[in-house]
Design a protein that fits this description.
175 residues; alpha+beta
């Protein structure tokens, strides 16, 4: 994650579009913490440099989708809160910024390689849901986060997994 700048105005989803989907976004707290996200309230999710995750950001994640904000490489690793997507995929501005840690000199603004979405904070989990708690929950046995070798920083979550995580964390969807 790069240093954040105020994100652009939200894009609304047409009424005829697909049902809401759910996602898990990983961030190391030293790079971009949930506490910082709560303060800023809105950000663009940048710095993703994996093609599979990029494709999700570019093609699949849409406004009003739900996001679980997960602290990875932390003690404990846990889902800290939830967010709502407020703008669909657009070119990652950090890829074109030579001062950014995520600069990609091969990414062309006319044909961008990397994409971001804008998300807005909906609230912290009153009880952060640790990775260990997820492993102990039978309803989450198939969750991508828990699969051996799964390292994607952006990954899909089923509606049932979303509801289970919200229940475990004491959180409620408000949109």
């Amino acid at each position: 994650m790069a240093t954040r700048k105020r994100a652009a105005a939200p894009t609304t989803r047409p009424a005829s579009s697909r049902p809401r989907r759910y996602w898990l976004f990983k961030s190391e707290p030293e790079s971009y913490s949930f506490a910082r996200f709560e303060q800023e309230r809105r950000t663009f999710w940048s710095g993703v440099r994996n093609y599979q995750a990029r494709n999700l950001l570019r093609d699949e994640i849409q406004p009003d989708d739900g996001v679980l904000f997960y602290h990875s490489n932390a003690e404990p690793m846990a889902i800290q809160g939830i967010a709502r997507v407020v703008r669909a995929g657009y070119p990652d501005p950090t890829a074109f910024d030579p001062a950014s840690d995520y600069h990609d000199p091969d990414s062309d603004p006319a044909d961008p390689t990397w994409f971001v979405v804008d998300i807005e904070c909906e609230g912290a989990m009153p009880n952060p849901v640790t990775r260990e708690r997820c492993k102990a929950e039978p309803a989450l046995a198939g969750m991508m986060l828990l699969q051996r070798g799964s390292r994607l920083s952006v990954q899909p979550v089923t509606a049932a997994e979303w509801q289970t995580i919200l229940r475990l964390g004491g959180q409620h969807e408000r949109w």
